[in-house]
Amino acid sequence: MKKLIIASMAAMFVLTGCNTFKGLGQDVSSAGNAVTGSAQEVQNKI
Question: Rounded to two decimals, what is the model's pTM?
Answer without folding.
Answer: 0.50
